[in-house]
Automatic annotation (TrEMBL):
Residues 256-410 form the Terminase large subunit gp17-like C-terminal domain. Signal peptide: none annotated. The keyword Ribonucleoprotein does not apply. This is Terminase. Keywords: Viral release from host cell. Pfam families: Terminase_6C, Terminase_6N. InterPro entries: P-loop_NTPase (IPR027417), Terminase_6C (IPR035421). It comes from the Bacteria. The keyword Kinase does not apply.
Length: 436
């Protein structure tokens, strides 16, 4: 089948020319993995049509937007490049759901369907299947269990993605080299450029300005358990434009986490307000090289401006006296010191991660320093085989914001039900202070 001037690079040709029933590929970002696989799907349908046969393909994408992109920027674009007029139909997936599927139907009955991936949609067809960006699918193992019987009667399976850590089915498919049923392809950014893709590698790396993201999404490295405790996906999932703005405080109960820092590390106060069952960040105070008197004054202000039910403070090392002083000022029952033993750090980190995973927290949107701080904390295995948490120290601290956040969530962990808000709204508090 002629491709009508479609430019294909060598790595794309290798993928297209591989006729294996089961194929899995790991491609760097923006190297045309969806474009290439949808071309294979279109060519397969046209071949069936030319032979008087019909076939069916289902594209399962990570979300509705990605399904539309696969259909409109992939399938439809290829057909139009070949001079074939097509109409993309939007049809209900099932009568009792709100999920819509996009379809292209060929004259002889071959069909391509694209829709968001979940265990229910994976069960709904007998067809060849393309799992697009599979490492990023929620419930990837449940989708896999639902899907595999669908293709058991001789259908083909294509699985393509960039890496997304080791905790998903895509990682297993790419690394289980004892399973010879799968044909595996791997194209990092360097291979793609060597094969003709016009990209300035150094410009991309510098522009991204994130070594972890570069390693994973462009160099195709698996981030192991020593990688970030909070992934960027988890961080992205709880960002909100209204978080971190004190004037949005509605008078509900608040919980405070304080990470003590005097010299190189930051002193952080993180305030969260319980609204329904969601913890909204109302303020993050970050002070560098602030005196204990200044730190005490900031904590006094927070207690004056918010309805603080409980405050948890890092009591390790320099935190002994601030905790003692805070208990005297605000009461033993409102202030708790937490010594950062490895056991307590594991407890705090696990609690914090669960709240991020459940999306029960809202944090400021687009705050680069905050995002990097949250992403900085790493879990490693110590010499004795026990897990511990580490964070690289730089000018922005030592994951100080992260621990203050976890302390605030721990302060709120005993809350059983929402408490009625105040009758009036507190006065607007000042914006966070930084740069001392």
């Amino acid at each position: 089948m002629a491709l009508n001037n479609t430019v294909l690079y060598d790595y794309q040709k290798r993928w297209l020319n591989d006729k294996s029933r089961f194929k899995v590929a790991m491609f760097a970002r923006q190297t045309g993995k969806t474009f290439t696989t949808t071309l294979e799907i279109v060519l397969d349908c046209l071949e069936a049509e030319a032979n008087g046969e019909r076939t069916r393909w289902v594209i399962l994408s990570r979300g509705e937007r990605q399904a539309k992109e696969a259909m409109n920027e992939g399938v439809k674009r290829h057909l139009e490049a070949m001079g074939i007029v097509c109409e993309v139909l939007e049809v209900p997936f099932k009568e009792d759901t709100t999920i819509n599927a996009l379809e292209v139907i060929f004259p002889n009955g071959s069909k391509i369907t694209a829709l968001p991936a979940n265990p229910d949609t994976a069960r709904g067809f007998s067809a060849n299947v393309f799992l697009d960006e599979f490492a990023f699918h929620q419930d990837s193992r449940e989708i896999w269990k639902a899907l595999f019987p669908v293709i058991s009667a001789g259908w083909k399976l294509r699985v393509v993605s960039t890496p997304n850590g080791k905790g998903n089915k895509f990682y297993e498919l790419m690394t289980d080299l004892n399973n010879n049923e799968w044909s595996r392809h791997s194209v990092d950014i360097y291979q793609a450029v060597a094969d003709g893709l016009p990209r300035n590698v150094e410009q991309l790396r510098v522009g991204l300005n994130d070594e972890d993201a570069w390693a994973q999404e462009f160099e195709l490295k698996w981030l192991d358990e020593a990688s970030s405790w909070l992934s960027y996906d988890l961080i992205d999932g709880v960002e909100h434009s209204h978080a971190g703005l004190p004037f949005h405080y509605t008078g509900n109960p608040c919980f405070v986490g304080v990470d003590i820092g005097v010299r190189n590390d930051l002193f952080i106060i993180w305030v969260i307000e319980l609204v329904g069952d969601v913890f909204w960040t109302r303020e993050i105070t970050a002070l560098k090289r602030a005196s204990f008197a200044t730190q005490d004054a900031e904590l006094d202000r927070v207690f004056a401006e918010y309805r603080v039910l409980r405050c948890c403070i890092d009591q390790t090392g320099l935190g002994e006296k601030p905790v003692e002083d805070a208990k005297r000022r605000f009461g033993e029952y409102r202030v708790e010191g937490v010594i950062f033993t490895q056991t307590n750090k594991m407890m705090l980190a696990t609690l914090g991660k669960e709240v991020f995973e459940d999306k029960r927290l809202r944090i400021p949107q687009g705050d680069k320093a905050l995002r990097e701080d949250l992403h900085k904390l790493k879990k490693v295995t110590g010499a004795n085989g026990q897990p511990r948490f580490v964070a690289e120290r730089d000018s922005q601290g030592h994951a100080d914001r992260t621990w203050a956040c976890f302390l605030a969530l721990y302060a709120a962990s005993d809350v059983k039900q929402p408490v009625a808000p105040l009758a009036r709204k507190p006065r607007r508090s000042q914006q966070l202070s930084e740069g001392y």
